[in-house]
Amino acid sequence: MDVTAISDLLLIQFNKLPPQLKIAASYVLEHPRDVALLSMRNQARRAGVSHSTMMRLAEWLGLEGYEALRAIHAKTLRDLPETRAPDSPFQLPGHHARLRANHVAASLSKLGDQRSALQQSAAAALLQRASEIWCVGSCLEKVVSDHLAQTLVAREMNAQSIDVGEEWVVTQLRETGPGLALLAVGLNSGDCRTVRLATLASSRGAKVIAVTDCEKSALARIADETVLVETPVPLTFPSMVPAIAAVEMIAARV
What we know:
By secondary structure, this protein is an alpha/beta fold.
């Protein structure tokens, strides 16, 4: 097994790992040079987990211990071309892009399973019955809500993208009746403003749809329907691709 095989396995299986192993796996993926050069206890401290968690990750990978994982990374580091600067990335060119592509592909594949299809259909049914649709998101998530709103408008539905930071939104929501459906995008625990807006909408009789990566999130708990998406390991920046794909599949079912 080499570093590439280890990275691929961690990415493909990442969302199936227990929470502590996810943290350890993220550290290994994002800091391969540290894996090669630092002690296991030092790595565990930096990752924010116990050293036994790092050992369990190595065992999960089928290795005899964490030293075996360090040895694999150390060999890759030694084999890097001598022309590379000492402070240059551990990975060969395109490594992060390949990791991201693999994990995004794995995340997208989950949207085609039966459970996700049922969630998408339930969400689409709420949108079909609504007289007005608000698509809500903040920061990067607004890219997702904007895309859905534009897609629904193109299909001649009464939809708009809402910025949770706008003051007029709460005032207008208080005047809105039960015919409203609010689809809120909330990844990585979600923006508290999005959660508050969804909560207020629900109290006004609106139907709430959550697009989230955690079925126990605050947004999912108040939603009438939830569509779960898997978010790739952040690496350098979060990916909105699975969430965009999810709302496209919802729109396709409307």
